[in-house]
Design goal:
The complex is a heterodimer.
Chain A (H helix, E strand, L loop, with lengths): L10 E2 L2 E2 L8 H14 L3 H15 L5 E3 L1 H7 L2 E6 L9 H14 L4 E6 L3 H13 L2 E7 H6 L1 H9 L3 E5 L6 H15 L3 E4 L9 H9 L1 H14 L5 E5 L4 H7 L8 E9 L10 H4 L1 E5 L2 E5 L24 H9 L2 E7 H15 L5 H12 L7 E6 L7 H12 L1
Parallel strand pairs in A: 4-14, 5-6, 5-8, 6-7, 9-10, 9-14, 10-13
Antiparallel strand pairs in A: 1-2, 3-4, 11-12
Helix pairs in contact in A: 2-4, 4-5, 5-7, 9-11, 10-11, 14-15, 14-16
Chain B lengths: L1 H9 L2 H14 L4 E7 L5 H13 L5 E4 L10 H12 L4 H11 L5 E4 L2 H7 L1 H10 L4 E3 L9 H9 L3 E3 L1 E2 L5 H10 L4 E4 L15 H11 L4 E4 L5 H8 L4 E4 L1 H9 L3 H20 L1
Parallel strand pairs in B: 1-2, 1-9, 2-3, 3-4, 4-5, 6-7, 7-8, 8-9
Helix pairs in contact in B: 3-5, 3-13, 6-7, 7-8, 11-13, 12-13
The chains are: A alpha/beta, B alpha/beta.
Chain lengths: 395, 276
Amino acid sequence: MAAEATPVQERFGPYGGRFVPEVLMSVLDELSAAWSQARVDDAFQGELTRLLRDYVGRPTPLWAAERLSERVGRRVYLKREDLAHTGAHKINNAVGQALLAKRMGKQRVIAETGAGQHGVATATACALMGLECAVYMGSEDTRRQRPNVDRMKLLGAEVVPVEAGARTLKEAVSAAIRDWVASSATTHYVIGSAVGPAPYPALVRDLQRVIGDEARSQALEAEGNLPKRVIACVGGGSNAIGTFTAFLDDPVELIGVEAAGEGLDSGRHGASLAAGATGVLHGAFSAVLADEQGQILEAHSVSAGLDYPGVGPEHAHLRDSGRATYVAVTDVDALHAFRELCRLEGIVPALEPSHAIAWLLENPGKGDGFDILTLSGRGDKDLDEALAKLDELDG
Amino acid sequence: MADQEAATAAATGEQRILDAFAAARAQGRAALMPYMMGGFPDQATATVIARAYSESGADLIELGVPYSDPLADGPVIHAAGTTALAAGATLESALETCAAVSGDVPVVLMAYANMLLAVGPERFASDAAAAGAAGVIVPDLPIDEAGEIGEALIGAGLALVPLLAPSTPPERRAEICSRGQGFVYVVSTAGTTGERDELPGGLAELVRAAQGDAAVPVAVGFGIGTPEQAASVGEVADGVIIGSRLVRAVSDAPDAEAAAAAVSEFLRATGDALKG
């Protein structure tokens, strides 16, 4: 029996909302209503569950990382989103939103991408469902992430280089929103993280919460108990909110790890929560990197997925309420952790979750129990960048 | 005369906007409201452009405060904002330009929500009022979010001009129009700012519906790039807003003098076309 449809959450404490041009208000209402219905529709949920299981490869394993556990002195489980189809958690959201686009009768899908993981996931879901797909990507990123550009094109997507500003993720999101302002009657915008105007932060959270739901029941099965700490990296914050949501009512410490880049004092970082201001970016009121006049600043991180000057509004609320703690890890520490996990576990992590690994290595848990860390994606995409940087560091 | 000046100084921003529309209507035409980007391409040129607008038939001036992430703007205005910021433009420098012409013509600022929130809505409002601004358009602030920002602007005697889109449903349109201060800004087409070859069908119906709902004038912007288009819109709308076409003219000009000449020529031609 289907549950009652309830409104999709628009605010998280004072954060969230819809700071968008008027022309988008009606399509956001339409999307909100569609998601409110779809998420309690048995047929929709049945199809989504089937796709996640048979196509994406869920549930992903919860891996008892023994050598890493020995190294930090307490048991650590890795939630293996790197083993999901296309190599990252992004596919959970892309498949769900593409399915929603079909349900809404929209034949064209647009997306933004930074490193290319969300773009590849969206292009993949569109190929699977026969939808037209255009992906906006800063021209600096199309240069840095050539293999993912080729992958998206191979999957049948159009890759649109964005020349504005610093030519990276922030501009790609803006360009996608501008496309949508003009095309929303026929086009669905698949945003890649738990950011943007309502209902996106809640929509993306709902589609990513499968990570935490699985991890929680896998942990209970393996340990007969809940973890002490749950750790995830935070850029826009979709893998973190997807992980945290299942544990919000549990006595479990939640830790989000942002990018400290070259250091929080350097001004070159991506830590909106740990060191940012409060303001509006891409349609939501949240934590942002901005100057005293409100101009949005460029973020910096060795990891393209954390290289974003905003963050999902629910994280800002969880920070303020004290329910979750947000910390930041530098490029250098993340790079060392990247290599360490390869050698300890035979797993090449993406640079994004390498930040979470680095924090864990520096802050081992004390006493009994165990920790869960979400390994949000695999590191193949980062090899060139990471190896070059590690060579520099090793001198 | 002195009494009249005192009355003008004391008038609220909204009243000055309404008076400007009424004066145009008394001449049997729509009001002409050119847009310019503050600090573009540099501060000195921007002030020259503002004066050129004022002297070439502008009934009101819409002055954009440059912003790093202007979601409602197309490529021409976005690029102009980026150039202005790189040249050192700030809210203060945009307000200097405002102050230079606000005694001659009502100035409506266009600023994105984050800029108002960053300096604080009350300080933004009092600084804007001190520079003689008559109203503010916040293109990413739908009525649902207006709250604190709206109160601060109104408290400082500024009009908060709302936007209306072709996609806005009738009930919401009525709600937006009923809250409209100074004028209601109808976005002619689903899209960002920028010139278009043809104006959309249904625009006249939208404008008439808005005029029916609103107690204030209704102006149309987005996509108007020729005097003929302006005249065509001016047959139904109370005001015509021209942005990207003029910003492009400034962008293409070799220097401030040439830029002023280009925008003046365009505005005079548009003014003539509006008179029919």
